[in-house]
């Protein structure tokens, strides 16, 4: 059920109903500009990952700064973006099932759409759906470059699948999907560099073998918020698929730079606003933001600008705070910002973004692809 907006433009932040998902608009816009600036001289395009933000509004802001389009993981996400006017979408994932493929093929009538495959049976099913819809789809071959998830091995297997796609009547070979997801949250630069070096080599080898067979790669896509600079500087990748950079979360903030300090390329821009609903005894307070308000798969949230307070545990509707009894206690009714451990699934719990600037609500944006699991 769509929830009513928790705020209205002009309202003070401390008047926003909670739990609410806030965007600090100044930090958010700085993140967009930073990524655009970092990629500007590389010749590599940004295809920002919309599984993070799930919003056509944010997609258009990214494309206004040079992003070539968006990528998503689900057909439902692609639909929400296409209906929101996004002109170029890659489903950077495999799609299986006649119903889903029919929906995907139908989108080709209103937007440029592409999808990934790692099996001949998938290619045949995509071809059938495109033929039935009277449309044409671009298909990328996904290669497994170390993540151990989806993808065929780099090299001959990928070339064989690409040739099958290129020979199909209703498909176009779109290139390679080469995302090394397991590298994104390695804490040290050396760990990230080692994994991406291996990924780049496997991708480079596959691109060359495809070229020897007369197949060019319009897209060589991958890279995330943790490693995008490495892929962008490789001379192999043509598109970067970073998503979390727009918001940053507590887990990405644990990545370290060469000096051993937290990487500070992007700013925290996404927060869950919560209210102290109970302060039952010294050293303990309880918020109205628990497991239903925050994803904790990548760790518990941080209390923004209150390092003396620890978010110590979550149950369905409660977040437990602990602090030294001699420190200033959060007051009953006080509102605190929380930095989520993992931004993507946290966003999926909400219907609205509340955009904040200068302590007041500036805008409300619907999270159009919330819950898009199909």
Give, in order, the helices and strands. EHEHHEHEHEHEHEHEHEEEEEEEHEE
- How many helices in DSSP terms? 10
The CATH class of the largest domain, by name, is: Alpha Beta
Mean pLDDT: 97
Portion of residues within helices: 25-40%
User: How far apart, in Å, are the first and last alpha carbons?
Assistant: 17 Å
Q: Based on Cα principal axes, name the global outline.
A: globular
What about the largest sheet? Answer: 9 strands, mixed
Radius of gyration: 22 Å
What share of residues are in beta strands? Answer: 15-25%
Query: How would you name the CATH homologous superfamily of the largest domain?
Result: Alanine racemase
Low-confidence stretches: none
CATH architecture label name of the largest domain: Alpha-Beta Barrel
Per DSSP E runs of 2 or more residues, the count of β-strands stands at: 17
How many distinct domains? 2
CATH topology of the largest domain: TIM Barrel
